Amino acid sequence: MTDSTDETLRAARTAFARLARENPGPTDIDRRIMRAFEQLMLGRPEITDGRTSAVNICAEAGVSRASYYRSPVSAAIKEVLGAPQAKRPEADELRQEIAQLKKTMRELHSDKATEIRELRSTLAAYANQIQILTLRNAELESDARQLRQALSEQHHSTVTPLR
């Protein structure tokens, strides 16, 4: 667990202590929600994938979402997670990094596909030019052959071919 996650967990415990002072006698549901949140923040989920979401907190606590949202603990959790210095567990950070890397990979694949399309288009243009030049070269060779044959048939011409 990172130092920033420790700080977030301390902030959560402080918020829970303040909540206990303001609302004497937390209910069993409140205690289960607090324990579930701490488990998720410590990176030790028992039931869920470890993300710090309302659904996962409810699943870990074994309470309904309605009970979670009615509990004053949900407001404290929202306040803790909404703080700018709040850090989520390393698993959440890794999920975010994975999502970012997947996005980057999709962009790179897209760029590569675009480049391949452009290269194929260029290749097709070059192949067409080569074919045109080959046909033109064959045409010129045919003309040159015809001219040589015409010169060889005319013995009395004034033009002498240079070789």
Question: Would you give an account of this structure?
Answer:
- The protein has 163 residues and is mostly helical.
- The protein contains 6 helices and no strands.
- The radius of gyration is 39 Å and the shape is rod-shaped.
- The mean pLDDT is 84.
Helix content: over 70%
Helix and strand sequence: HHHHHH
Q: Which blocks of ≥5 consecutive residues have pLDDT under 50? A: none
Distance between the termini: 88 Å
Per-chain topology:
Layout: H1 3-22, H2 28-41, H3 54-61, H4 65-70, H5 72-82, H6 90-153
Helix pairs in contact: 1-5, 2-3, 2-5
Q: What is the structure about, briefly put?
A:
The protein is mostly helical and 163 residues long.
Give a quick set of tags describing it.
single chain; 163 residues; mainly alpha; 6 helices; 75% helix; rod-shaped
